[in-house]
Amino acid sequence: MSSNQLHFKIDGLKASIEGKEILKGINLEVKGGEVHAIMGPNGTGKSTLAAALMGHPRYEITDGSVTLNGENVLEMEVNERALAGMFLAMQYPAEIPGVTNADFLRSAINARLGEGNEISLMKFIRKMEKNMAALGMDPAFMHRYLNEGFSGGEKKRNEILQMMMLEPSLVILDEIDSGLDIDALKIVASAVNSMRSPDRSFLIITHYQRLLNYITPDHVHVMMQGRIVKSGGPDLALRLEAEGYDWVKEELGITDETVGQEPEEEFKVPMNTIAPKF
Amino acid sequence: MTTQTALPVDRNSVAALSREFQEPEWMTALRLAAYDAAEKLELPKLEKMRIGEWALWDYGAPKARQPLAGFDQLPGQARALLDDDVKNHLLVQHNSSVVFRSLPEDLRAKGVIFTSLGEAVREHGDLVRSHFMQAVKTDENVLTALHAALWNGGVFLYVPRNVKVEVPLHALFLTDDASASFVPHVLIIADENSSVTYVDHYAGTPSGGRLVHNGVVEVFVKQGAHVQFASIHEFGAPVTDLTIRRSVVGRDGRIDWVIGEMNQGETMAETVSILDGNGGVSDSKVICVGTGEQKIHLTTRAVHIGMNTTSDMVTRAVMRDASTAIINGITKIEKGATYANGQQTERVLMLSPAARGDANPMLLIDEDEVMAGHAASVGQVNPEQVYYMMSRGLSRELAMKLIIYGFLAPIVSEIPISSLENQLKTVVERKLGQ
Questions:
Q1: Predicted confidence band of residue A4 (pLDDT cuts 50, 70, 90)
Q2: pTM for the whole thing?
Q3: Interface ipTM
């Protein structure tokens, strides 16, 4: 795929959860090789946008369209979106007891390659070992159950590992920096930078600017009240870091920037996804 | 007798069977006393399940068979379930009789006994007599009494003091004839500071009607001994499987149970550890897949009598179709069992709206200085897990499959020999894929 071919377009996207509208008309256009950062305080709909794009079953799309290279994303099943090239590094990835990291990733790679074209075990292991080394991950994590008992930081690295293994063309990173210390942040940022290419685009969701010290975005957007209220270049992120969000609110006459009165904790994985320890 | 009109066999046939097996007088007397007791005893009372509605009285008649000359002469169905590498430490019961047994010479030389219980009654009478029907009592209910009256074939495993058996001993219990009674009894005695791994496999779909498998397993773990016990039950639908496994663990002894309850028909099974001596340890792991209209009643129980005893029990069940499972976990800590630690977990995964699963954790504690814990849940496949896996490109079907297998996998991987582990995987796949 050449760089001018990747074209991801969100047009007037509205989404609600349990009848409550969270996204109130999002417009965004991402082209091949671009890095977009979506910033904003907690509770403004950023993570909802990420989940809605990936097709999380709890969100109902009420209006608007999303296309990837002209194809209607909203009509696709979650796995079809992944096979079309989308990848969401989740803020709270689920734990899957009994399924090892390696088995899961091999199944995911083979889902892309199709029957008869499966990756050889040796090739897969070499690739996984190489990427784990790049992320400073203990090789033992290859045979650990998927995310089970991982610390917050380990889960984040594991999400990035999956990105490196699956080589998607549209990567959405949802608060990938939360819970990471500065060293881990640098490792994750360098992994993302190593993946930058003209045929791969990134949508980076964060409420801190610090990640953007290591990954320079092409475009920065501010979300409030379920909309993108301001867009600019990398300098916009720097100003937000220096001055916070109040000036944006003042400029736009916003008093309460949140939407749906639900804090972003609403994305927490339900308790019963965590299996008992043996 | 209030629960049924008559016992499935008459008293004379019990005496005749004992004669035919050339049993010593004490065993004949034991069988007849058990028969007399059975006439007066009731069915066990099961939590939330009416066992009286099951087919419980199809015992057939004992059909004696001569031992086979070699491993190669085992019936095809048995051969299909056995890897060649187990043939030197193997016992096979086909219907009413043990037809094959082997034990390496070095183990024999160390005094290890691995034979049919029928033979052990004749050759090692004192050892058998002091343990047979001691962990499970004849007069507990009509089923235990009938077992004591009618048992046939069976396993006797004795490991002498300080002997470590490195190779896993393997038994296969196969039924293919509904007219042949099938009542095996497994008796294991691990003497002081010995260790042994015993695995067995119960299988078969008898032709010609229904059949009851009324089986008892007794494991005596003496001071400092360690027994690893793994078992798969995968009888076909015509078999009602009634199984009691019970272990008595002495001071600093240890029993590990890994059980796969994979029958197609009604199943009542209990797996019990009685931690008699100080410092005894029990670890039990049970998995189950319910299909069709199966009724399944599973109990795991740990009884803490000694001080500093430790038990852990995990049961996991996947329920499909219109199957029903009642799963009880009972941790009993007796007065005086100070510093005991008893933990249990029961998890049921429901795959169908018509399936039913009940997890009942019970802690019965009569001592203050103890630790005990339980966790139980009944639920469906978590949609967050499915979404997560699909977001990486897996189809919904594959995601569900991996999650369900993953739910059972940590227990399947505990099976101590790989050929049996693979068989359990195959059975699980078959039950989940039906």
A1: low
A2: 0.86
A3: 0.92
